Each structure stands twice: as structure tokens, then as C-alpha cells.
Amino acid sequence: GLLTDTAVVANKKYDFVIVGGGTSGVIMATRITEISKHTVLLIEAGVAYEDIPVTLHAPALGVRSGSQQPWTWNYTVVPQIGMENRTFTYQMGHNLGGSSYVYGLYTRGTDQIFDKIAKISGDNGWSWKSLVPYFNKAEGFLKPPSGGEWGPNDYKLTDHGTQGPFNTQLPMYPNDLDPLVTKLVATEAEFSKWNNDLSSGKSLGIGTSQATITKAGTASNVASGYLTPAVLARKNLDIITGVRATKLTFKASKAGPVASGVQFTPSPDVNVTTVLANNEVILSAGAFNTPQLLQLSGIADKDFLKSLGIPVVLDSPNVGQNLRDHVAMPMQWEANATTTLDQLRDPTFLANQTSIWQQTGKGILTAAVANHLGFFRVHPNASIFDSQNPDPSIGSDCSHFEMLFRSFITPSPATGFFTSMGIAFTSVASVGNVLINTTDPFASPLIDPKFLTSEVDIRIGREAIKTARRAYSSPVFDGFVVKEYGPNPNAMTDPEIEEMIRHSGTTFFHALGTAQLAPFHADVKAGVVNPDLTVKGVKGLRIVDASVIPVLPDAHPLAAVLAFAERGADLVKAAWR
Ligand SMILES: Cc1cc2nc3c(=O)[nH]c(=O)nc-3n(C[C@H](O)[C@H](O)[C@H](O)COP(=O)(O)OP(=O)(O)OC[C@H]3O[C@@H](n4cnc5c(N)ncnc54)[C@H](O)[C@@H]3O)c2cc1C
Fold this sequence. Notes:
The protein has 577 residues and is an alpha/beta fold. The chain is 24% helix and 19% strand.
């Protein structure tokens, strides 16, 4: 059941103790407890699903949930040397359901990414073909009504799951941009590649987005999707929220350290409670907190641990390294429109729409982050790659950047209506890290994506911005797009555009890779976990979350995280048959 009292679980033993009730942790807990002999405790630091205000489950409002809330971690990255030493906030989910709820686009990425992961790990189970059943297992795609409402072609499903707990669907709320994007595809050669299904494994081209929205018009969330009343009623599953895991405990064995349990506490001034794991401790605390917890527990580079006075349990130099993330660059234009989401800044309009949404699950509050998006490679004539700056994309089908056609900007200025192009650099060369600088488990780890420290990322970004401007300068948008608004419409030359990127770039919130997987035969110098996600050099410890994914998909990564967790659960079931 759902617990909040630490006394209930103190000194109890479970077969599996899962740390982090986010995207991956919820899936792990749900799937493992399908086997009735396995007992599971899921520990979540953040708030219960019910404690997220109801209106934030409206897709268009969740987007605006912002930082400094009980349901987000409110992290800030360290000053970014590639970004004029700026910092920016990083709102990882701090709630049962984790980061699955905070935004809302579903994209699986290009097949070559997963085939590369299979190659790196020496495990064909991580290939695109092997993962499709796991993508499908998680996904509950709500089929669009037949007919050609979305895009120039009828929407054709390739291989999607329709029975899974995590709902996806085509956008529920059309906007003024939709017919214009369709026309752009039909009339402009550069943008003529239409993609019927951006999640087919081939992602290049413009297509209708797949949004993480439920049938009821709420934002999809693993907590509401997986943790049904029947699952919550399972006798072999306990979930405790509002408590933070502070350390893993170990016992010695001939074969090396064995993870034996987890210490946790609701706040720094309350003594820790220890809970023991018969079979495994599973870390699903996400790309920042999983490496933090490993480091606090003595699993990291030994010299680094010694510098902080932490006893070394295992010298594992890659813990916290290989942080990968997408740079985001929002480009904004004034629009000759009255129906963009900017309307929501009017309190009366917002109140009316909130009531419509609450009563019917419909209306503008069901609007997706973007109704159309496109994945692109840089123009072949751009010749931006050379021996010093090789192409960072994983394969020739992978995108270099993405453009989201959006019918609003955030924060919305006091007056006026806007349209924007959410740009992400989807093939990124810069690599960062997440390292603690204190033994205080309540302190934030130092999050350093090292954005724009690779020259090639700037070059790709410049091409992306020029491409976005070419798109919105098409005559197709005459009468709708008025003029460029931000972040710097005067940045025209390459050095000016570079300055704009360094000055205004931020994250697309797609961090992963900080406990990357490596082949079974390779030691800790190659990676943190084995292909079955067990931690190298320790027994009884597994990591299942975004941290293990060694290559950043050229897409929004939630779909990949869902698939990794679904397979991760099968790997656990197979190991403890
Ligand atoms: C703002 C934002 C927007 C995003 N938008 C999209 C999008 O539109 N499309 C997309 O595909 N992807 C998106 N992503 C990325 C995607 O959501 C993540 O990659 C994915 O959810 C990560 O899953 P996870 O299981 O690794 O971690 P999470 O889902 O973050 O789960 C980790 C959980 O562990 C808990 N936890 C952490 N430390 C502790 C501890 N010490 N003790 C107990 N519990 C702990 C956290 O509170 C959290 O609930 C977005 C991410 C963010 C942050």
C-alpha cells in the first residue's frame, strides 16, 4: 500500500528495495510485483501523485509548472563555461511518477541509436528490433479517428503499443499553425519530407507530434498509468513517499561487496531508517540522483571518494561521468493571431478553460507542447564538419537538430500573440558530469552538462537557427508570422548567432548516461553497469533509469526510458525466477 510513516517499514526486509518512484521505479515496482512471491518497497523522495495540484495535470498547464515547486527538484546547473558562465534551473520530477509527468512529447528516436547501444554493450537485447516490443509494452497509443485530419497523409501507424499503461495520442487541440505547417511541407522543397510516424525508428522529416496525453485529457504519468487501484492493492508492494534515500548499505562477501539495504529519512533532522533487501537494491533515482547516491555510498572513483573522506566500497571511475543532454534554443516570432496559448495569461479566460477542462477533459488546456515537429540533418551544403569537428550524429539517419512548431512562448509577455520554434540540438558532442562536493545527502550534486564546450555543437546550432528562420520566412507564413521577436532578432552573422546561442541556450531536460552500461567482459573502466543493468563489481545492486543509457537518443528520451525499464523488469524477473 501507500505509506508515509517510516516507522512502518523500519528494519523490515523486502526482496527488492527500489530507490526512486519516478518513470523507471514505478515501472519496476509494478512489473516485479506481478510475481506474487516477490515483495517490493518503492522509496520516493517527492510528493504523492495526489499532492500535485489537479490543474497541473492539464497538458498545457503542466508545461508551465516551472521551478521552485514541491513536485520538482529545483536543481540549478553549475555555471556553464560555454554559456557565458550562466546557470539555469533543471526541474526534474520530485513526485511519484518522477519526470514522466512534467512535459509531454513522445518520440522513440532513430533505430541506429539503439543498434549502437547494442553494439557498445555487446547485448543485442538493446537493439531497436529487440526493444520495439518493450516500447510497445509501455505504450497505450490512442488511435486517431480515421481520415486525414493530421497532416498531408493519413496517419499510418507502424508498430505501436495500444494496450500499455502510458497513454500517447495525436494532439487533441488543433491550432492556427497546423494548416500552415502542412502547407510548408507541401510547398517548400527543403521541408518537404513528411514523416507519417515520428516513432517508427526513422525520425527525419516533419510530422504530427505524439503527445503524452490520456483519454481523459490529462497529462500521462507513469504513476496514474501503472499504479492502478489493483496494483496499489497488491499485498507484496509498499510505496513510501516523502522520504529520501541517503545511503546504500553493504555487507562483505568473498565475491566482493553485496548491497544489503537502503537508509532513508524524511528530513535532515530525523534519524535515518534502514530497510533491508533480500535479493536486490534497485536504483531508479534518475540521471542526477542515482550517481549522487552511488557516490555518497562509496561507489565512484576512489581518489574522488577519498578527497571527500568517503570510505571506498568500489572504485568505479565512470559513476557520474558521461552526462549527455540536448541543448535547447527557443526562437520566437510575433504572430498575427488571437488564439495562441498566450491567451492563457488572461485570468478570466484561464478560469473558464480550467472549468471546461475539469468538466469535459477538453479545450485549450489539452493543447500539446507542439502539434508538429521535425527532425533534421544539417543541410549537406553547410560543410560544417571537418577532422577537428567530426559529425557527432550516431548514424546517417539520425537528426542533428529538432524544431517544434509551437503556438506560444513562455513566459508570455503582457500583450501580443506569439509563435515559436523550439529548437533542440539532438546530436551533441559536449559531455558533462554529476559529482557531489559534500557528504550531505540533502545537498544538490554539482550538475555540469558542459554545454557548448564542443565547437561542433555551436556549428550545428547555427545551422538549426538558420533553418528555423528559413522555415518561418516561407511565404506560407505570410500574414501569420509578423516578425522575429526573440531572443535576438538582430543576430545575423555567424559570430552574432554564436553569441546568441551562448547567451540564450538552455537545456531540453534530456539528461542521461551517468551510470552507463558496458559489456559483461569489460571492467569498471568501461562503464558502471553490465548489459543486464547489474552494477559491475558489486552484488545485489542494479540500476534501472536514464543513467544507464550510454547514448543520447536523437529524440525526447522518455520513450527510451520506458522501454529500458520494461526490459529491466524482465531482466530482474529472469534473474529471480
Ligand atoms: C522538465 C522536463 C521535461 C521533459 N520533457 C520530456 C518530453 O516532453 N518528452 C520526453 O520524451 N522526455 C522528456 N523529459 C525527459 C524524461 O522525462 C526523463 O528522461 C525520464 O522521465 C527520466 O526517467 P528516470 O526514471 O530516469 O528518472 P525520473 O523520472 O526523474 O525519476 C527519478 C525519481 O527518483 C526520485 N529520487 C531521486 N533521488 C531520490 C532519493 N535519494 N531518494 C528517493 N527518491 C529519489 C525522484 O524524486 C524521482 O521521482 C523531460 C524531463 C524534464 C525534467
